[in-house]
Amino acid sequence: MAPLKKEAKEEKVMGITVKKDEDPSEWYSQVVLRSELADYAPVKGCMIIRPYGYAIWQNIMDYFNGVMKKLGVQNAYFPLFIPESFFGKEAEHAKGFTPEVAWVSTSDEEDGERLAIRPTSETIMYDSYAKWIRSHRDLPLRINQWCNVVRWETHAVKMFLRSREFLWQEGHCVYETEEQCELETRLILKEYRRLAEDILAMPVLTGRKTEKEKFAGAKRTYTIEAFMPDGKAVQSGTSHNLGQGFAKAFGISYLGRDEKKHTPWQNSWGISTRLIGAMVLLHSDDKGLVLPPTIAPIKAVIVPILFDDTKDAVLNKCNEIKTQLFREFNFDVKVDDRDEYSPGWKFNEWELKGVPLRIEIGPKDMEKKQVVIVRRDTGDKEFVPESKLLDKTKELLELVQENLFKKAKKHMENSIVEVKTWDEFMEAAEQRKLIKTTFCGEIGCEEKIKAESGGASSRCMPLDAEKAIDGSICVKCGKPAEYVVYFSKSY
Ligand SMILES: [Zn+2]
């Protein structure tokens, strides 16, 4: 018997032509473009998120909307345009964001004021908060918005990781007390960590940003930092305790339980489509995308091995298995029944697209009442009796998820190097390590570290272990050290 329309199309899958460890930058672009996550836009510095990429973002949104609902955060929407005068109200915030704000230029002079395209929404949201908050009964106020923001950077676009426009969520909450504000600021960080580690299989360091790296206008910024195979970190989510600075600047106050006027405490926090870029960089390989099952838009693909005389029976079996998997797990499984491509071509394509499991079914498998399951992460192939299919699928999806996390965690832990001297620091920076050291905390000293080391910046001070022990000195200037800090190059 002859395979159906054998090699009808001999053209090759547009596979990845460079190796991840040889040319990470070109490799990354090829993976993102050829797996159809995203495309370049006709507008400089922007990107187009294609349906396959957006489905991942949708999964992140669905997951995190569930988290926010439990925390009592409600979604809302504020305007894209922000009056210029709003930026002037909080001095540090204005200083931090003004250089990268994009302004709207129209001939409409009636408004009398320039409009900014939001780089972040503190100012426009808190203008409304000042009107809405009257009494302690209005607190806590917890609002989030899913939206796009624009930061007019000069860096070249790196899809998902750095572009002038990107998608994110920004949560903005207001509290009666400093304690509650700090508690929830850190609770959000914990939720970000859970999203990164449990859903994206991406281990992260959690900690506080240094004075130099904290959010403009914040009292304290907490961060999750992922570490990539090429030795660069990706800041993957931040949660800011804003203190009372914005509340004072925007005139937000409330009548307390003591019938007196008080200034509330605020936080803001965000994750963005950068998460997708970090996840792609972290897990994917020379064959293309590798997606953790929990976030993958398609968890398994069924590829029928078709011959003329058994075609209908095999396709029926494939659809039967698809229905079984959907009923059991309620997730998307695809049957690739396209006639015009050979099984080998399809294997390559689904590997390129990072689908966690491939299930192959041919006439011989049907005779033996079995299927073949292949893992995307390891390439391991298993013959599985049909009667064990559901259990095995569940087990393998969990194994893939776990394996990706463990592999990344091992790399991150093995990359951490503790250094005491500047020579050791320079050597570790050269080797693209995640450098743990002691630091004085001064902004000027940190700037010198970054300049002289060829771009190693502070990532965070470890959560609840940020104080340097007495007697330790700053790795750069030799003054008494205040903090323990992780440094590395970054995206
Ligand atoms: Zn120093």
Oligomer: single chain
**Count of domain modules:** 3
Strand content: 15-25%
CATH top level assignment of the largest domain = Alpha Beta
User: In total, how many beta strands?
Assistant: 23
Q: Termini, distance in Å?
A: 54 Å
Query: What is the averaged pLDDT score?
Result: 94
> Judging from the principal axes of the Cα atoms, what is the shape?
globular
Per CATH, what is the topology of the largest domain? BirA Bifunctional Protein, domain 2
For the largest beta sheet, what order do the strands appear in spatially? 9-10-11-23-22
Sheet with most strands: 5 strands, mixed, barrel
Which class best fits the helix and strand makeup? alpha+beta
Tally of DSSP helical segments: 14
Radius of gyration, in Å, reads 26 Å
**Could you say what the CATH architecture of the largest domain is?**
2-Layer Sandwich
Q: What is the helical fraction, as a range of percent?
A: 25-40%
Low-confidence stretches: 1-10
Describe this structure in words.
The protein is of the alpha+beta class and 491 residues long. A five-stranded mixed beta barrel has the order 9-10-11-23-22, surrounded by four helices. Strands 16-15-17-18-19 form a five-stranded mixed beta sheet, with helices on both faces. Strands 4-6-5 form a three-stranded antiparallel beta sheet. A hairpin with a 4-residue loop joins strand 10 and strand 11 (232-243). The chain has 14 helices and 23 strands. Bound molecules: zinc ion (ZN). Zinc ion (ZN) binds next to loops. Residues 439-440, 442, 445, 474, 476-477, 479 line the site of zinc ion.
